[in-house]
Specification:
- This protein is an alpha+beta fold and 205 residues long.
- The chain is 34% helix and 23% strand.
- The protein contains five helices and nine strands; from the N terminus they run αβββββαββββααα.
- The strands form three sheets. Strands 1-9-8-4-5 form a five-stranded mixed β-sheet. The protein has a two-stranded antiparallel sheet with strand order 2-3.
- β8 (112-115) and β9 form a beta hairpin.
- The radius of gyration is 18 Å and the shape is globular.
């Protein structure tokens, strides 16, 4: 599932045609019950990260204005809502403890934006580029479904309202963002899917 979502996210991000934003080549290889993800090697590393997180959200970055602007453009196209996540850790001398600086992002917290060693901007890790369905609406009892049961890009374009990719996860605690995703999920399950099923039934009668 993750590999499928990663490729789907890559295709949709690439289709935004954001100028001077670069992407890896990727393909899925299925062979005798195994799946391999083949991806091109990029001139990036742990020291080139400028946007998102490479450590599961323990440190989240948005430190390059050029990259931030490109993600803003992409967010408008793909209906990815800007939202706040806990960001880079720093030492607060007054409180004598390590604290996180809140960071605002378009897209999921665990996407990775890099300023490569060749000075070009690269985006990787696309698996959660679309918001999750509300499990209370979809009736999925698996709590981790929010990481793979995602709304389709076609639905997001039709729905029209930007939603947080991190809603219902530990990255985004916003009750408002959760409620917006729940409302979208209800529209999908209570109106759009039944309407599609009825249309299909009439065509087949």
């Amino acid at each position: 599932k993750a590999a499928d979502l990663d490729l789907k996210g890559l295709i949709n991000c690439f289709s935004c045609k954001i100028k001077a934003l670069h992407f890896p080549l990727m393909c899925l290889i299925d062979y005798r019950g195994y799946r391999l993800v083949a991806i091109s090697i990029l001139p990036i590393g742990g020291d080139t990260l400028v946007y998102g997180s490479s450590d599961g959200g323990r440190s989240v970055y948005n430190i390059n204005e050029d990259f931030s602007q490109k993600m803003r453009e992409m967010g408008k196209i793909l209906k990815m809502k800007k939202h706040t996540v806990a960001g880079m850790k720093h030492y607060n001398k007054k409180k004598d403890r390590i604290m996180n600086i809140p960071v605002q992002l378009y897209g999921p917290a665990d996407i990775e934006g890099h300023k490569g060693r060749d000075k070009k901007l690269y985006l990787i890790d696309f698996a959660r580029c679309f918001p999750p369905e509300s499990t209370s609406v979809s009736k999925n009892k698996n709590k981790r479904a929010i990481f793979y049961q995602l709304m389709r890009p076609e639905f997001m374009r039709k729905y029209g309202k930007s939603l947080s990719c991190d809603a219902y996860s530990g990255f985004d605690p916003s009750a408002e963002n959760r409620e917006e995703v729940r409302e979208a999920s209800k529209y999908l399950h209570d109106k759009l899917i039944p309407k599609f099923a009825e249309t299909t039934k009439r065509q087949n009668d």
